[in-house]
Amino acid sequence: MIDLSALVSLRAVDACGSVVGAAEALGFTPSAVSQQVKRLERQAGLPLLERVGRGVIVTVHGRQLLDAGAGVLTALEELESGLHDSAGAVAGHIRLIAFSTAMRGLVAATAAALLAAHDDLTLTLSEGEPWAAVDLVASGQCEIGIVHSWGDVPIDVPDHLVTVPITSDVADVIVPHAHPLAGRCTVTPHDLIDEAWIATPDGTICRQWLNRMYDGTGRRPRIAHEAQEFASHLAMTQAGLGVALVPRLGRPELAADLAAVEVAAPVPTRNVVAVHRRTMETSPAIRAILDALISATG
Fold first, then answer.
1. pTM value?
2. Is 198 helix (H, G, I), strand (E, B) or coil?
3. 135-170: buried (b, 16+ CB within 10 Å) or exposed (e) per residue?
4. Closest by CA position to 175, among listed 231, 233, 226
5. What does the pLDDT look like over 224-259, one tens digit per residue?
6. Inter-residue contact 7 to 49 (CB < 8 Å)
7. Cα–Cα distances in angstroms (integers) from residue 252 to residues 84, 105, 145, 230, 247, in the given order
8. DSSP alpha helix (H) spans, the chain
């Protein structure tokens, strides 16, 4: 009989490309994941993984097992969701991954309230970029992903995932209080052409939006410094190293020597959505979490 928990571990190894990565995603030790895969190999009587460089890939037999087993795991997930739905039970273990500002400004407090209200619900929270979150939910390594997309910069979501709108979020240009633009009610990209920007790294969604915001100006934003976290953007702006485009969600109260200026034409707006697998659509736990997140945004 195929061990289903071991099959989940094999699926995670395939998605992550390593036993260590699968262990981190599943919350197990690498030794535990390795033992589960070895048990699965003994049950199948065939090798399921082969080492390539520092990572591993599934063998032809492993791929056949994963492809055939995907339907079984999907059916079980639907069955579990249906059982909880018929019992009206907000229960189970939900792994939720969110981008950093959503974690600070929305998820943390909501999660605490949910756990206090539902004794049979457990949550594991982690931070990750939107593309990574979608991949982890799609591959079964997380149940809910909180992701964002800016304006017309798309984020691809596979067909077997459901998207649920949570809120919209606006970003402001943060400047030192002595900056010439600090006293303005609004600015446009044309007002910002010569500014030195503190931006997220190239390839991130926020950086793509900053580039897109300059469409029609005939210029590209002049990137002076890069930092992943918006908290770093605020510190660098406060030090006079440039200006930054910082979303309001999860943003701390600004220091007295910083000013937030609204941007128009276009307004930097990002849509915050949750993604989960379609098989969990009837899960009371999923519904309770999504309802709480939407309610928390007002």
1. 0.83
2. strand
3. bbbbbbbbbbbbbbbbeeeebebeeebbbbebbebe
4. 233
5. 999 999 999 999 999 999 999 999 999 999 999 999
6. no
7. 38, 9, 23, 10, 10
8. 4-16, 19-26, 30-44, 60-87, 100-102, 108-117, 130-138, 205-213, 230-238, 284-296
